[in-house]
Design a protein that fits this description.
Length: about 110
């Protein structure tokens, strides 16, 4: 979930929390065509609640299936963002979001 939170942290100042929630909800809706068991809060709750719902639905599945769904959801969100703001800016946002998430994990023990 750290990658999702990092991405939200970068996008919310640009598009607002409701904007991010809308993009995330749309991505979930599209990903549910392949993985109908995916769930994420459809209300205007805080972003962390959406991610907690997502994490719960992923934990209920086998690792391979959860991984496929998570990748599809992420690719779908990235595609939507790239369509809206362009690939160059999207790449820049992703690099910033994910380099920050990785640097926050440097020196920490992996969680089991």
């Amino acid at each position: 979930m750290k990658l999702w939170l990092g991405l939200a942290h970068e996008l919310v100042p640009i598009i607002g929390e409701l904007g991010f929630q809308s993009l995330f909800a749309r991505s979930c809706h599209l990903a549910r065509r392949v993985h109908p068991w995916l769930r994420a809060s459809s209300s205007q709750d805080r972003i962390e609640i959406h991610f907690a719902d997502l994490q719960g639905s992923l934990q209920d599945r086998a690792d391979e299936e959860a991984g496929e769904a998570s990748i599809l959801l992420l690719i779908t969100l990235i595609d939507i963002i790239a369509t809206l703001i362009g690939e160059l800016l999207t790449s820049s946002i992703l690099r910033s979001a994910w380099s920050n998430a990785q640097s926050n994990q440097a020196g920490k023990e992996p969680q089991q």
